[in-house]
Amino acid sequence: MLERDEMxxxxxxxxxxxxxxxxxxxGPPSVLxxxxxxxxxxxxxxxxxxxxxxxxxxxxxxxxxxxxxxxxSTGEGDVVISPGVDDDGNALTYxxxxxxxxxxxxxxxxxxxxxxxxxxxxxxxxGQEADYVDxxxxxxxxxxxxxx
Length: 148
Prior knowledge:
About 25% of the residues lie in helices and about 40% in strands. It has three helices and eight strands, in the order βββββαβββαα. Strands 1, 2, 3, 4, 5, 6, 7 and 8 form an eight-stranded antiparallel β-sheet that branches.
């Protein structure tokens, strides 16, 4: 787990390298080096970068969805997260991503996901996300979008 900071500045981002298995049919999974990230500027969201930045795919979804999905199947629509266990008894987290192009099912070790979430909660505690949202910037952005 890496935390980016510069010379005693507050931590501005949590980055977690994670290996995910992409489950395809009944065949063996494809292994993909990926990255979970969290920015306090967007306190409700987490992002998973699948593969290298240049040719990878990014998905952003609710931090609370990731946390809840580690214990019970959670989500509707584009992102569904569910718990599981492998043959050795290790906890797993499944992430199902749906788009017009198809569905991908990812599998990762829950211990890594849990550590990532723990570090995000050190930056922005659960329930205090609103304290980190710059409402003025959101309003400005929305006004610009409606006039564009």
